[in-house]
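Field log, afternoon session.

UNIT: design team B
ACTIVITY: writing a sequence onto a fixed backbone
BACKBONE:
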C-alpha cells in the first residue's frame, strides 16, 4: 500500500514519529479495509471484528492524523446510535525499511498479521464473487528461491519500484477513462521462508532440464497428461506442495489431509506420468511402515499466459485454489515459525488500483518478468557464495494481480 506525502515524510510517507502510532493491529487493518471501500466503525466490527469502543476510537485517531476522513453521516446507525459515521481512506500506510526497523518486533508481527488477514480477505472475496479467475491473464504465482544478501536486496528494490509505479498507471477518478477499466488488487510479498535452505534446494528448480521427454510436450509446453493430472484436487495440491519442499505421501496426509491410500495412489500416478520422482527411500517409514518414499517435482508448477488459456476453465479453477491454498500455508508457516518478519527489509504490500486495459496487461507482464527473473537471481547467488548454505536466505516470493469484486467488475471479460 502506498501513502501520499505527509508533514514528516520518510520514503513512503510514514515518519518515525508516526510509525509507533500506526503500528497497531486495528489501525492498520482499518486503513487496509478503507483502501477498497467506505466503512463505519460498527460496520467494521460486524465484518472484521474488535470492540466497538476501541474501533471507534481508532477511526477518530486516524481522522485526526489525516489518514481517513468522514464521508457520510447516516441517521439511525447500525448499533442503535443516533448517527452512524461512515469513513473513507485518504492515505494508505506503507513502512519503508528504515522506519520499519524502529518498530518493535512484536508490533511488526502484529501489523504483518493484520495486513495479511486483509489481503487474504480480498482474495477470498474475489474467489467467492468469481472475479479472481475472470481474466485469463490474471497473475498468480509463488516461488521459493535461495538468495544471498545482495540478491535479496535487489529483489526488495524491484518490488518497491513496482509499488511506486502502480499509482503512475492508475486511472485518475477525476478523468474520464478512454477505454475499459479494471479494478484490480496487486499483491507483492517477499519474506524468509520457514523451510531451511538445504531442504528448499532439493526441490525442482525452474531452470533445470525437464525430465519429461520433449516428444510429450505440446507447442506451449503442456504435456497432454497435464490436464488429467491437475483436474484432480489432491494431485494438483501435491504438485503445488512439492514446489516448497520434498514430501512423502504420509507427510502430506499429516500436514495437508486426505486418506493415505488415496494420496499414495495420487503420488504414484504423478510419478508414472513423469511429474514427480522419488529422491529418497527411508526404511521404517513415519508410521512404522516398511519404506517411506520421498518425492519431489520433476518440473516447476508454473504456467505462462498461453499455457493457462489452453487449460479448461474447470482445471484453471482447481489450479488457482491449490496455488492459493499452498501459498497461504507457506505464509502461515513462516508467521508461526517467526521467519516472516525475521528480515526487516522483507516486502509485504497489497494495493487496490483502477487501470485501463493496457495498464492491466502491463502489470501482468511486469509480474511475469519478476517471476522469470528469480531463477537468475538464485543462480547468481549460488555462484557468488559457492553454494555455501550459511550465506543463503530461503526466500518465498508471492505475486498476484486479479480483478477485485464490485459492481464495476460483474461483467465477464472475453
Amino acid at each position: 500500500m502506498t501513502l501520499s506525502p505527509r508533514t514528516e515524510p520518510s520514503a513512503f510517507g510514514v515518519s518515525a514519529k508516526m510509525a509507533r502510532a500506526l503500528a497497531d493491529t486495528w489501525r492498520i487493518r482499518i486503513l487496509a479495509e478503507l483502501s477498497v471501500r467506505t466503512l463505519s466503525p460498527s460496520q467494521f466490527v460486524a465484518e472484521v471484528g474488535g470492540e466497538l469502543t476501541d474501533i471507534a476510537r481508532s477511526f477518530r485517531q486516524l481522522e485526526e492524523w489525516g489518514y481517513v476522513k468522514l464521508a457520510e453521516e447516516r441517521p439511525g446507525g447500525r448499533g442503535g446510535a443516533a448517527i452512524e459515521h461512515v469513513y473513507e481512506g485518504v492515505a494508505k500506510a506503507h513502512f519503508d525499511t528504515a522506519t520499519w526497523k524502529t518498530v518493535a518486533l512484536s508490533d511488526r508481527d502484529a501489523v504483518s498479521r493484520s495486513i495479511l488477514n486483509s489481503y487474504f480477505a480480498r482474495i477470498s472475496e474475489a474467489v467467492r464473487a468469481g472475479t479472481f479467475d475472470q481474466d485469463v491473464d490474471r497473475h498468480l504465482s509463488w516461488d521459493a528461491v535461495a538468495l544471498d544478501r545482495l540478491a535479496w536486496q535487489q529483489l526488495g528494490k524491484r518490488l518497491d519500484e513496482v509499488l511506486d509505479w502502480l499509482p503512475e498507471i492508475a486511472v485518475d477518478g477525476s478523468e474520464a477513462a478512454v477505454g475499459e477499466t479494471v479494478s484490480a488488487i496487486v499483491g507483492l510479498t517477499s519474506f524468509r521462508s520457514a523451510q531451511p535452505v538445504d531442504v528448499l534446494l532439493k526441490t525442482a528448480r525452474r531452470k533445470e532440464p525437464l525430465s519429461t521427454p520433449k516428444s510429450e510436450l505440446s507447442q506451449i509446453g503442456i504435456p497432454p497428461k497435464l490436464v488429467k493430472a491437475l483436474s484432480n484436487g489432491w494431485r494438483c495440491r501435491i504438485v503445488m506442495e512439492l514446489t516448497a519442499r520434498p514430501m512423502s505421501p504420509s507427510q502430506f496426509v499429516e500436514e495437508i489431509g486426505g486418506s493415505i491410500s488415496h494420496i499414495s495412489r495420487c503420488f504414484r500416478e504423478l510419478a508414472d506420468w513423469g511429474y514427480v520422482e522419488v529422491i529418497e527411500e527411508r526404511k521404517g517409514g513415519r508410521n512404522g511402515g516398511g519404506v517411506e518414499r520421498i518425492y519431489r517435482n520433476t518440473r516447476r508448477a508454473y504456467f505462462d499466459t498461453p499455457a493457462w488459456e489452453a487449460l479448461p476453465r474447470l482445471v484453471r479453477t482447481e489450479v488457482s485454489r491449490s496455488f492459493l491454498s499452498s501459498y497461504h500455508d507457506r505464509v502461515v508457516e513462516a508467521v508461526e515459525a517467526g521467519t516472516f518478519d525475521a528480515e526487516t527489509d522483507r516486502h509485504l504490500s497489497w494495493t487496490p488500483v483502477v487501470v485501463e486495459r493496457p495498464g492491466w496487461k502491463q502489470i501482468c507482464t511486469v509480474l511475469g518478468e519478476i517471476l522469470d527473473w528469480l531463477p537468475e537471481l538464485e543462480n547468481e547467488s549460488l555462484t557468488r557464495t559457492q553454494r555455501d548454505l550459511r550465506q543463503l536466505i530461503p526466500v518465498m516470493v508471492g505475486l498476484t494481480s486479479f480483478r477485485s469484486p464490485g459492481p464495476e467488475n460483474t461483467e465477464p471479460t472475453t
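LOG NOTE: Residues 1-13, 209-221, 410-414 have pLDDT under 50 and may be disordered.
NEXT ACTIVITY: expression trials, pending approval
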